[in-house]
Amino acid sequence: MRKLHFTAAALVVLAGTLPALAQTGTTTGCTTAPTSITALNLERTLAFPNGFFSSNVPSLPPAVVVAVASGALEVRDQLTYNPSTKILTVQGFTAQPASPKPTPPNSIGNSSILTLYRVQVENVAFSCQPVASVLMTGRIIDNFPLTPYGDLIGAPIAIGFGYTTSQANSAPQVNNLTILVPGVAGLFSGSASGTLTFPALPVNPPGTTGTTPTIVFSPGATQETAQRQLYLDASKSTDPNGLQLTYQWRQVNSNISAGLSNGSTATPLVTLNGGKGDYIFEVTVTNSKGVSATAQTTIRYYGQ
């Protein structure tokens, strides 16, 4: 296998621009950083060879190098995070330049996969200063096929990106996504597409006082299923003063289709129409005095 040698004067540092998710109105700045990630499924195109920063020698199939250089293919990677297990999966592959992004998981053929590795995330940091950004750090726990830089099991790794959104209900736009394996390589792209959500901050209507309801999802905030239909369940939510609760559900991500029935009940029925992937739903729970809390749940569908 022929090897290519790329060099750069310095590694790209983690960066981002503009505000974090606001709870109401148009964002003008990140004032409250999130504390966790509800769902992350991102895909980006790596500029070749300018997106690869290393004095080491990466190995790529010669046919891929030729196809990318001619514009017939592009190199992408897809990042998927499971908040329950704290596992981040990174899959590198080739794709047609005009193909959709993110690429549906079942559309990535084995022959196009360049590498697949998993990261045990040990820490996630969030910041509003100087920009809205996320930094995930951990260790690579497996890699097959091997990365272009060889076997990296046990290596520390950092994944960082900035994000921005212009309206309260719009999805964050990810920018300046960097993967850094110290002493080995850095991979940089200016943007990425896909899903990034955080737990919503509870918002009290003006003039209301008291404590917000506590939202509880059953069986949990993230669940996996092979069933196309299932019930969401927030019926175990409570109000600290024992007030009556009402519910209003909606689907958050628009890149994958789902049907929602009885969305004003604690247990609506959803139909997963868009195939495999993450379906993200949000519920707003309001007590009889008009005080509300909002939270999101993710359904990971792996059926047909």
Q: Which terms summarize this structure?
A:
single chain, 304 residues, mainly beta, 8-stranded antiparallel β-barrel, 4-stranded mixed β-sheet, 1 helix, 16 strands, 3% helix, elongated, disordered N terminus
Order of helices and strands: EEHEEEEEEEEEEEEEE
How much of the residues is beta strand, in percent? 35-45%
The main sheet comes to: 8 strands, antiparallel, barrel
What is the total tally of β strands? 16
Broad structural category: mainly beta
Question: How would you describe this structure to a colleague?
Answer:
With 304 residues, the chain is mostly beta strands. It contains 1 helix and 16 strands. An 8-stranded antiparallel β-barrel has the order 1-3-4-5-6-7-8-9. A 4-stranded mixed beta sheet has the order 10-16-15-12, with no helix packed on it. The radius of gyration is 21 Å and the shape is elongated.
